[in-house]
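Researcher: Batch entry, complex prediction.
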Amino acid sequence: MNGKKKIVIVGATSAIAEQCARLWVQSKPIALTLIARDTQKTGTIVTDLQIRSPQSNINIIYTDFLNPKKIKETVEKISASGKIDIALIAHGSLPEQSSCQDDLQTCWYALEVNGSSPALWAEAFAQHMEKNNHGTIALIGSVAGDRGRKSNYVYGAAKGLVARYAQGLQHRFAGTAVNIVLIKPGPTDTPMTANLKRQGAKLSPAEDVAKKIVNDINFGKKIVYTPRKWWLIMMVVRHLPSFIFNKMNI
Amino acid sequence: MRIVSSWGRLNMDEHDVITINDSDKVAEIIGENGRSGLAYGMGRSYGDVCLNSGGRLWDMSGLDHFMEFDDDTGHLTCEAGVLLRDIQRLVIPRGWILPVTPGTQIVTVGGAIACDVHGKSHHIHGSFGNHVKRIKIIRTNGEIIDCGPNERSDWFAATVGGIGLTGIIVQAEIQLQRVVGPWLDAETIPYADLNEFFSLSDESGKNWENTVAWIDCLTGKGRGLFMRGNTANTEYRQKPKEYKLTMPFEPPISLVNGLSLRLFNMAYYNLNKMRAKRSIVYYETFFYPLDNILEWNRMYGARGFFQYQSVVPRNVGQDAVQAMLKEIENSGTGSFLAVLKTFGDRPSVGMMSFPRSGVTLALDFPNRRDRTHKLFSRIDDIVREAGGCIYLAKDACMPRDLFESGYPRLTEFLKYRDPGISSGLSRRLIGN
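Model: Structure tokens for the complex:
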């Protein structure tokens, strides 16, 4: 791909990922592969990115995010055309905690799509990057993964899995040229959180969150809280003794 | 429900904010029965034109995709939530520019059309609507209307400047203008009174694409600084470093008061008079000087502020502006954000568009309740007398008779209203 940086985004319709993609294509022409679920519409996103950067090569692959075989095939197909520089694993869905409690099927799906699926994608990319001793895998976790809370522990547990997986990969790739970045956004203004927003929650703009992600991937940071204040907030939340924590309605 | 206010921060009311991210779902979302709604972009208008207290706001900022751009013709199609800032950043490096932008580029295309915004180039390029080729609107009954200057042009005329009341603008096609680069050859010239302003304005009208003047609203005579600029064909220069300042808190009372204003205006006028010169300036610095100061509107304190922008016909313009300045001087209130500009003769396309041939004066006023309202009613009299009108995107309190006389095509416009859409301004001035 004539020297263009090769970036892959899993979860093309994720608002954070889309903002990252805009920043990447706008900074210089890249070879961008977007991976979307079979059922998703991506036309407007691809057209928009192509207008922003006519010199970028943008292609889209649809696949099943919960099928390990398809995940492996997809990554193999992408890597066949050259070394991947950055893989951003961004997909997810925010379930209603109460629906997960009432319906185990919903609960299972939430755990899979937010937990196992990103881990499998990361594993598949890891294999490829290990071979080349090159590349960065960035995973979008969440501040919700830092401590289980009654209001969203299903989502939180899945994101916790992502965090632990990233930690393991960081250990595995320590001292190599492969970087693993774990991103923990605070509540961000995206379609996923539209309900929270309607209820009045204060959310960070996806554009700001993306700026920090792109920047910190460049610098090879290990753990990124965005906005930065969430590092401090979660530090406190993680360390609250349970006799206090359990009395809180959060 | 969440608190939403407009740029003037006069009211902090709860709204049911519904985010729209998918253009295919617009009809379904806005068609939902219940309270009336209103499309909301970046909330940069000042009064209640973008608010719908207690009702729904459809947040359009998620519909922000470019759909088509032709490098050869300068034809751009995009969703309505795209920011003018993003258009400029996309097209200027490719030799195109928006011919009309207001004093901030943090506004959506939909908002720019709904308010038919104008800018420093009005005397040459008219207002924003003059460059719109097509609009797609969706009504709350599900009807989709594609309109333009030559296609369903009645709907086009109702929607441009139609303050969002004819339907939800979801898409627009805009004709851009050729530009050599991001730089402007700009000049600042001090003027001592309105006579000088008008002769500078007349003299610059033909050869300068952009003109605007800052006016010291406290001296009564109307001294100020006249700024003009043309795009410059200059070789590559380092673009100024991006800096952002944020007004970090809301002071309990306005930082703009009689004393600070007098000091600021004196310093600003004299400093600029001393270094008045011609220079090469980056377009963002020239067109959008306040965009680097985030949330500057907080400086007026908890009560918020008004912006009063009127236009009066040119033949009575000088006397009317003089009379308004006299009233403002007597009141001792006002702000350093005060702008004077001559509009050109190019007619606006919208039935409810504000820009029209004449001279426009825009001033900020910290909200001092009764005192401010008394001053406004005296200025209203001058505007009424002069046969002028007040800009809906700024207004928070104009009397109904002035609205009706300033917008003579109101009755015609009302036929195009969407009954499922309502705003604070529509209820205040139209009744529903």
